[in-house]
Amino acid sequence: MNRINKVFEQKKDEKVMSLFITAGYPNVNETVNLILGFERNGADIVELGMPFSDPLADGPIIQYSSNVAISNGVTIQGIFDMVAETRKNSEIPIILMGYINPMVRYGLEKFFSNAAKAGVDGLIVPDLPLDEATMIEEFAHSNGIQLIYLIAPNTSDERMQLSDDKSNGFVYCVSVTGVTGARDGSEVQQSVDTFIQRSKANITKNPLMVGFGIKNYNDAQSISKEADGFIVGSALIEIIRDTYPTENWKDEVFNFVHQLKFGYPNQ
Amino acid sequence: MSVITTTTYSKPNHKGYFGAYGGKFVPETLIPALNDLEVAYKEASEDAEFEKEYLHLLHEYVGRPTELSFADRLTGFYGGAKIYLKREDLCHTGAHKINNAIGQILLALRMGKKRIIAETGAGQHGVATATACAKFGVECVVYMGEEDMVRQKLNVDRMQLMGAEVRGVSSGSKTLKDATNEAIRDWVTNVDDTFYIIGSVVGPHPYPMMVRNFHRIIGDETKRQLMDIEGRLPDYLIACVGGGSNAMGIFYPFINDDVHIIGVEAGGLGVESGQTAATLTKGKPGVLHGSMSYLLHDQEGQIELAHSISAGLDYPGIGPEHAYLHDTKRVDYHAVTDAEALEAVSLLSRLEGIIPALETAHAFAWLEKLMPKTTSEEIVVLNCSGRGDKDMETISKYL
Ligand SMILES: Cc1ncc(COP(=O)(O)O)c(C=O)c1O
User: Would you say the pTM of this structure is higher than 0.95?
Assistant: First the structure.
């Protein structure tokens, strides 16, 4: 069974936590250490962002981490190597998240086969809606890479059902219309309840993960009340940005991760 | 007013593809907005009232039809084909961009949208959008790269005077590409009440088709005017190509005709210099700003910074229909350098008393290569897409 499905099988009684970081941020040597540390501190899934120069679905924080990662010289091959390295010590599900252009340039067929060889489990492409995804579906299926589609508050019931149909692993609920970035908890909460209820009615095959704007344990618990789990990205990258490269930056980051999942620090 | 040609060329297909190029590569949040837009545009384009209002505004507000001027001294200078200029520089606001801004704002109003956003490079599309918004009393936010705000300061002042908010963009190259990213982010966030008026034949479907259709009046008028004057079609059509809207506007009605069509890109410091905006000459297929087309990007698929002295051509992408016309060889695309464009500005100013925009000057610069191959029996029509007032600061630095 695919690692993603296995996590949802095993964690039926808790909220599954998926963490997003940009590969190569804050530097290329730390990405594997960060993934392993996230796992030790409660992360159930890791989303590894493949940086793109023009991330038009991202807010200022992920734009920033993407720019740093690109200047650090991160490459697609380098990201596959990071995944392979992680696989020596961990079976945590790894989902790559990236814009379509770098994959097109790399060569789609080669991209999927090398991703699978490295040990990648899933893929999220924020600028590849269902309508265009036929260009990658076959490569994804033949290499056992699960495709995860996003739905937003303005997605129709019909499209939600289609996303459920096409997704494997889980469906990603973008809690607000907007770009990535931490938001005021109440702002997210207001719109999200009715949206999640509608999503649940339409998404019957896959688990539901909620993301965009979650910044602490309380947000995570309330926003994912009706969902199977939650996704945190910008708030995590913000902590890295604010602590790196102080001496104990990783301890602080891992503490934040532990707190996100369990509501109390790890020490 | 518009001459409807019966065409055998019928692109894009229902998914917005021109051959392998086009499509809708956007976040899911924008899909409902694009679908609504597609439906609204289709209804509007089948509604005679909409067409009537659009043409009425183009006539009594924009000043259409624009003239087709015979450039006799320029013709004499080269001693080859007769050169005619399609005078989009005479449009209200000084460039062709207003044709599209008027069309899109009418559509926005029809869709009940309360807020307009736009991106701009040279500021001509920003000015056109700010103008249309002032005319209809609609809130207007224009995204513009900080570098462009410096080199096109006059247009920043014009937009502000007309009540638009100009938001400087400091990310990336601080030019048109980054302004477009920021406009798309705004749209994703405010999709309910906001209409995004894209300024060229770029972006996700239906924009490339819609913007082309709002500009095809340039080509339709040209055809009719040249028929009146010369009783025949031109041998050559030339236009500069940034995103490609003025070019598609004049090319489209001639696609099925026996006319040699030429698009001129910005070569910057030279197409091999690494400081260029010659997308079709130097680029490779990829996805940027919602569509598949040619792009300047590196081995890793990271978008490369374009360079052109002309802010309106300083863009690493190009409209998907141009990518298709390039691959099928229906249109020839060439590049000219910053220096050649500047030369053309002086030449045209002295010979014809027309100071062209730096964008437009790229089309004029290609005459150096083309004209020696023509004969006095032939006819060249060049789309004079805009006037150069906005560029005076840049131009005077080099004179
Ligand atoms: C006068 C003029 N011509 C041409 C362009 C390039 O745009 P397009 O290629 O869409 O016509 C611009 C863009 O700002 C412009 O102002």
Answer: yes
